[in-house]
Structures are given as structure tokens and as C-alpha cells.
Design brief:
Organism: Phaeodactylibacter xiamenensis
Pfam family, one: DHH
Shape: globular
Number of helices: 13
GO molecular function, one term: nucleic acid binding
Strand content: 15-25%
Low-confidence stretches: none
InterPro entries: DDH_dom, DHH_sf, DHHA1_dom, Oligoribo/pAp-PDE_c-di-AMP_PDE
CATH class of the largest domain: Alpha Beta
Largest sheet: 6 strands, parallel
Radius of gyration: 20 Å
Protein name: Recombination protein RecJ
């Protein structure tokens, strides 16, 4: 991060700070927001968190998550907080359109803006930028940020648990996007008192009965394997959403089950939601799904985890996805796992 000295000086005096993250926040978005929130509170700042939409219920155990302001529920209070902010931290997104109407509020403000993110192609709206596409997660970068400030002694258990949570979820419990540096970071967090076993249990072993029944439905009734393209597909219909009472976060992680099949190198989860069809893509090894998401489905993300959307009907979107696969047949066949 360039001009870290200037940012450190700004943070040396208590400020009104807003932390925001992307719509439909996942574990990394929530963990990085809460971790930074608790860290900045130690510096005597007045800190508020705003998310464009509600967070998944399965993260409700995280410390002080209830203090997150949801723009969709309270846009007027969100606007008031943005207008009063001296500094706005933008976490786990690389463009203001990723936070919808909240981005329209933030863009014209004169306050200092800080982006901390690990996605490709960050927009240039921030005054301070910490961007690393090789990082496992934004939570990993928050640890880097605290070290850059020379304030690692402030990393306590509460901050560490939040950041460890985002690292677990964005790496699929350390199955991908790992590095020697990441393991040094999580080792540091454990040394500071983080109970990684407890966190793994809270994150991975807190399903409701309906979650397992939904997974069974996907495996038994909504799975298609395209062997010639080393690709697996799950899909859900609007009726499935009603039958299983699918709420925000209920489908998290299901797409990864396709990658358990030996020769499947790319997995797609295509979900028919009320207004759009959402596409979640995952891959193994050196095959990148980022290009498919960006080029064909107005999305983006990372090499092994990306997403997009379509305004076409589910059947049309499925056909369209299958239609692009011949372009990637050779790359998928040659991909090294």
C-alpha cells in the first residue's frame, strides 16, 4: 500500500469511520468488516458498518454483527452515516457498482476512501488502495494492513476470530487459495488465542435439517455431469426456492460438491431467483473461471471462484452456459489439478 504513512497519520486522531462491503455478504465480507471494526474501535474512532443487503443467518454468532446497518432496510440512516464519515473503508469489492445504491451515495463524498480487496481490476475511486489478487481473502489483507500500520499488538482474539472466519470460508477450509504466507498468518492468529477448532465447528457444523435435504435434492435431482467438458452443473428453480424455503446463505458451499468428482474440473451452480438467474462458478487447479464469468455472464471474481448473473430464463441460461463450453474444451482437458 502506497502512502501508508499518510493514512496512519489520519488514523492517529479519532475519526467518524464507515466500513462497507458488497451485496449478499459472505464470510470474508463479514469477517473483514467485523475484524476491522473491532480493530478501529480500539483506536477511539466512531465506527459504523453498512452492508447493502442482509447477512446470512449462519453468521449471526459473530461478535457484534447485529450492529451492521443494512442499507436495504434503513437507507436514510445509511445515507446519514455516509455523509458524516471522515473515512470510508471499502472491503472485499473492487467497484462501487458492487454495492448498488450505496455506491451512488459514496461516490460523490469528499471524505477519504480506502479500498482493501483481493479481486482483479480494482477501480480507481479510492485514495488509499491495498489490493493483492494472490491473497486468499480480504481478511488476510486486513492482517497485512494491521501489520503495515505497525499495530499487530492490537490483534486480539475477537479480531482474530472474525478474520479467521473469512479465511476459512474463502479458502473452503484451506482447500484452495492457500500459500505459505497464509499459513504463517493463521499460525499467528492461533498463537494470539484464536480457537480454530471452535470456528470450524461454528462455520461448518451448524446446518439446519433443510440444508441437508436441499443438498440431497441437488445431488439426486438437479445434477448434470458433462464428461466431455470435465464440467458439472447444479441448478435450482423458483419452485425449489419455495419448496425448501431457501434463504440468503442456504446454498453456500453446495457448488463445491461437484468438484469432489474425480474428472470434474469446473463446477457451475445456476439458481433461478425472483428477478435474476445467479451463476456461481468454481474450478480446480489452473483452469480459470474468471474469464467465463466476466465475458459471458457480466460477472467476475477469482481464478478458481467467480460468479455472474443472467436476466434470461433458467432454461435459456443453462443452454447458454452449455453453449460456451466448447470454447474451453481443450483448456479444461489440459488443466492441471
Amino acid at each position: 500500500m502506497e502512502n501508508i504513512t499518510q493514512l496512519k497519520a489520519l488514523l492517529g486522531v479519532p475519526k467518524n469511520i464507515v466500513i462497507t462491503t458488497h451485496r449478499n455478504p459472505d464470510g470474508d465480507a463479514i469477517g473483514s468488516s467485523l475484524g476491522l471494526y473491532h480493530f478501529l474501535n480500539k483506536g477511539g474512532h466512531t465506527v459504523r458498518m453498512i452492508t447493502p443487503s442482509e447477512y446470512p443467518e449462519n453468521f449471526s454468532w459473530m461478535p457484534e454483527i447485529e450492529k451492521m446497518v443494512v442499507y436495504d432496510i434503513d437507507p436514510e440512516y445509511s445515507q446519514e452515516l455516509v455523509e458524516k464519515a471522515d473515512i470510508i473503508f471499502c472491503l472485499d469489492f473492487n467497484a462501487l457498482d458492487r454495492i448498488d445504491k450505496l455506491g451512488d451515495l459514496i461516490e460523490p463524498t469528499k471524505c477519504h476512501k480506502v479500498m482493501i480487496d483481493h479481486h482483479l481490476y480494482p477501480e480507481g475511486f479510492a485514495d488509499f488502495l491495498l489490493s493483492d489478487t494472490t491473497a486468499s481473502s480480504t481478511c488476510e489483507l486486513i492482517v497485512d494492513f494491521i501489520h503495515l500500520l505497525g499495530m499487530e499488538s492490537d490483534l486480539d482474539v475477537k479480531i482474530g476470530e472474525c478474520l479467521f472466519t473469512g479465511i476459512i470460508t474463502d479458502t473452503g477450509s484451506f482447500r484452495y487459495s492457500t500459500s505459505a504466507k497464509l499459513y504463517r498468518i493463521v499460525g499467528e492468529l492461533v498463537e494470539r488465542g484464536v480457537d480454530d477448532y471452535k470456528l470450524q465447528d461454528l462455520i461448518n457444523n451448524s446446518m439446519k435439517e433443510k440444508h441437508l435435504r436441499l443438498l440431497g435434492h441437488c445431488l439426486n435431482n438437479r445434477m448434470e455431469i458433462l464428461e466431455e467438458y470435465n464440467t458439472g452443473i447444479f441448478y435450482l428453480t423458483k419452485q425449489d426456492y419455495e419448496d425448501f424455503d431457501i434463504q440468503r446463505g442456504d446454498t453456500e458451499g453446495i457448488v463445491n460438491y461437484l468438484l469432489k468428482i474425480k474428472n470434474v474440473k469446473m463446477a457451475a451452480f445456476i439458481m433461478e431467483q425472483p428477478k435474476i438467474v445467479k451463476i456461481s462458478l468454481r474450478s480446480k487447479g489452473d483452469f480459470s473461471v474468471q474469464e467465463i464469468a466476466q465475458k459471458h455472464f457480466k460477472g467476475g471474481g477469482h481464478k478458481n471462484a467467480s460468479g455472474g448473473f443472467s436476466f434470461q430464463p433458467l432454461e435459456t441460461t443453462l443452454k447458454r452456459f452449455k453453449g460456451v463450453l466448447p470454447q474451453y474444451r481443450d483448456k479444461l482437458a489440459a488443466a492441471v489439478i
